[in-house]
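Run: sequence + adenosine monophosphate -> complex structure.
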Amino acid sequence: MDAQVQTRPAVLILLGPPGAGKGTQARMLEERFGLVQLSTGDLLRAAVAAGTEAGREAKAVMDAGGLVSDEIVIAILRDRLAQEDTASGVILDGFPRTSAQAEALDRLLEENGQQINAAISLEVEDAAMVTRISGRSTCATCGEGYHDSFKQPEKAGTCDKCGGSEFKRRADDNVETVASRLAAYHAQTAPLIAYYESRGVLRRVDAMGEIGAIAGALGEIVVAAR
Ligand code: AMP
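>> structure
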């Protein structure tokens, strides 16, 4: 972990379409800077698995590749931000996705005396997203992400991070749902790029390249923004 940048809490937002690499990069930033990754997708999948009321409502929307209601998502994020481990700084992965969520985040941060250090837009071409998404899997034990073409475990069938041997694929990582997820991104989330640009916190990163190079560019932004 980079000790010299551990002084102030940070709030970083990762913006980008499904498959842009938000989850992979958030995990790398978490490890490097001691920030906590908050993925509303992960929180919603946990709610679905636990069978909570919010999870039951969210499931059909997620399966269809739509956006879960602002009310549910904001409530889930508010609860997670109230937990102590987030005090040293967070990377928001997949939130906000609508203007109502962006405004709710502003209010939540204001209540906590925090502000957004950087909103990083991972810039990618839509055409590459279907290949990226349909090949991905995660370790069932530790959540490390892999890809059939771009990031295979060093030893086939064994997680590099924890040695686990079970991998899972997301139910919504299929060709049909990806099209809806991309459409939702362009209609509802992409306008947030202009919102954060007008606030002076937007940073753009070319995310079509190699994972390590993108992580390097993000690391520089984090160091400069704290
Ligand atoms: P993700 O893991 O970020 O790709 O999210 C998976 C799915 O969860 C999305 O396709 C949405 O259905 C739902 N979801 C995650 N985050 C949000 C959000 N901030 N607002 C609305 N729906 C969300």
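>> summary
The beta strands are 11-15, 36-39, 90-93, 118-123, 136-139, 145-147, 167-168, 202-206. The pocket of adenosine monophosphate is lined by residues 18, 39-41, 44, 61-62, 65-68, 73, 94-95, 97, 101, 172, 181 (CB under 6 Å).
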